[in-house]
Specification:
There is one protein chain. The protein is built from 19 helices and ten strands. The protein is an alpha+beta fold. The chain has one domain: Cytochrome p450 (Orthogonal Bundle), CATH 1.10.630. The chain has a five-stranded mixed sheet with strand order 1-2-8-5-3. The longest helix is centred in the middle third of the chain and has 29 residues. The protein is globular, with a radius of gyration of 24 Å.
Length: about 500
């Protein structure tokens, strides 16, 4: 009996001593008082970015939050974001990997979950110079325009169907198909879905693998934060092994298809899978790294662009003045006899501002993936001990009334009045991060979001369902790493252009 009491008492004493050591040795940022063992876990609300922003109002723009026994520091203004992502970038460039992230990434053999070091620098170079170079982004433009025009054609068919007259459409369905098809075509060179929305066998398997990955990752939440209790929540080694084997099998099948196609044609295509296979020897890329990079593209690109566009459409439907102004610009520049292309973006400054304002108010990843300190460092006058995680609350930074006038108002004009970079150079607006870990595919994401919004606005007028008021649109977020709308937007679409402009422009590259 005494033994059963000694073990938990010893563990609690050890934990209290550990926290006391931290408190006495380091000047940690202020924050809510942690409970023994669990830290602040039970105090954190489901929408973490909003919860941390509320705490920042009480404790200041840099706070300590304990996830179990793991220290997490959250910064919520642009000055501190600059310290984290620029001034101390190298010391804070490692990545915290949960057990599931470690399994999925083969202990950081990819880009997203790799620690900063020789491997990260190498794969980052591959992404910057090869996969996301301006030349390749332009070469892949026909795929993006194909998928966006396929979306337009699908909406047109549905909203002009006599049975649907006056009925609202679920916007998420259409933009989700664009994001899915565009991502799989860029990464794998495969359109798993036909024009009727029916998936082939590989597409069904791809969907199953992504769904299973989410399920496995979510199964470990509590145990991840209390390392010395992990023995009570063992990793399902067999389940992760099966998942990894299933993912690798599908990826290798696709890689082999591309290898055979290159042998037959004598040339490589622009898709990422072809690019990585042809660059494998040049950059000494292992098969694990190639597979990891391909699935990074899926993870980073599948949902984020669709999330931004859905939020943008919700704001445009809620703010008809902005919708009308964007359409007037499109009508003036593009007219009614052709459709918008990416080459038109430079002549459509207000449309670009609409996309930028959407990303300001609704960043798809409101809390950056945590950076991990590889050395003791000071931020905002406080100590960040080695091993602590640091989060930048991008959502809070972009709504800071100290740097944004009327920050809660959807007003794209603010970016006509002052040009603000959103690719990591201006720390007031960080939808793609900044510094060593800035998203290498930022321009690709901007192009797709702008194209989708441009086509949706040029081809259709959008209104809320009859009997509904703009203020009744649910603008709350769904909890999670990325911020889907809690209630997907429903809207009535009315065509604006001649019927011959609603045809898909297919591209096979």
């Amino acid at each position: 009996m005494a033994l059963f009491l000694i073990i938990p008492i010893s563990l609690i004493t050890l934990l209290i001593s550990y926290n006391l050591y931290y408190t006495l040795r380091f000047k940690l940022p202020p924050g809510p008082r942690p409970w023994p063992i669990i830290g602040n876990l039970y105090d954190i609300k489901p929408l973490r970015f909003r919860c941390f922003a509320e705490w920042a109002q009480s404790y200041g723009p840099i706070i300590s939050v304990w996830f179990g026994s793991i220290l997490n520091v959250v910064v919520s203004n642009s000055e501190l974001a600059k310290e984290v992502l620029k001034e101390h970038d190298q010391q804070l460039a490692d990545r915290h990997r949960s057990r599931s992230a470690a399994k999925f990434s083969r202990d950081g053999k990819d880009l997203i979950w790799a620690d900063y070091g020789a491997h990260y620098v190498k794969v980052r170079k591959v992404c910057t110079l090869e996969l996301f170079s301006p030349k390749r982004i332009e070469a892949l433009r026909p795929i993006r325009e194909d998928e966006v025009t396929a979306m337009v054609e699908s909406i047109f068919k549905d909203c002009t169907n006599p049975e649907n007259f006056g009925k609202s459409l679920l916007v998420k369905k259409y933009i989700g198909n664009v994001a899915f098809n565009n991502t799989t075509r860029l990464a794998f060179g495969k359109r798993f879905m036909n024009s009727e929305g029916v998936m082939d066998e590989q597409g069904i398997e791809f969907r199953a693998i992504t769904a299973n990955g989410l399920k496995l990752g979510a199964s470990l939440a509590m145990a991840e934060h209390i390392p010395w209790l992990r023995w009570m929540f063992p990793l399902e080694e067999e389940a992760f092994a099966k998942h990894g084997a299933r993912r690798d099998k599908l990826t290798r099948e696709i890689m082999e298809e591309h290898t055979q196609a290159r042998k037959e044609s004598g040339g490589a295509k622009q898709h990422f899978v072809d690019a990585l296979l042809t660059l494998q020897d040049k950059y000494d890329l292992s098969e694990d790294t190639i597979i990891g990079l391909l699935w990074d593209m899926v993870t980073a690109g599948m949902d984020t662009s669709a999330i931004v566009v859905e939020w943008g459409m919700a704001e445009l439907i809620k703010n008809p003045r902005v919708q009308q102004k964007a359409q007037e610009e499109l009508d003036k520049v593009i007219g009614f006899e052709r459709i918008i292309t990416e080459n038109d973006f430079s002549s459509l400054p207000y449309l670009q501002c609409v996309a930028k304002e959407t990303m300001r108010l609704h960043p798809p990843t409101p809390l950056m993936l945590p950076h991990k300190a590889n050395a003791n460092v000071k931020v905002g006058g406080y100590d960040i001990p080695k091993g602590a995680n640091v989060h930048v609350n991008v959502w809070a930074v972009a709504r800071d009334p100290a740097v944004w006038k009327d920050p809660l108002e959807f007003r794209p004009e603010r970016f006509l009045e002052e040009d603000v970079d959103m690719k990591g150079h201006d720390f007031r607006l960080l939808p793609f991060g900044a510094g060593r870990r800035v998203c290498p595919g930022a321009q690709l994401g901007i192009n797709l979001v702008t194209s989708m919004l441009g086509h949706l606005l040029h081809h259709f007028c959008w209104a809320i369902p009859e009997g509904m008021k703009p203020e009744e649109i649910d603008m709350s977020e769904n909890p999670g790493l990325v911020t889907f709308m809690r209630t997907p937007i429903q809207a009535v679409a009315s065509p604006r252009l001649p019927s011959h402009l609603y045809k898909r422009v297919p591209a096979d590259i």
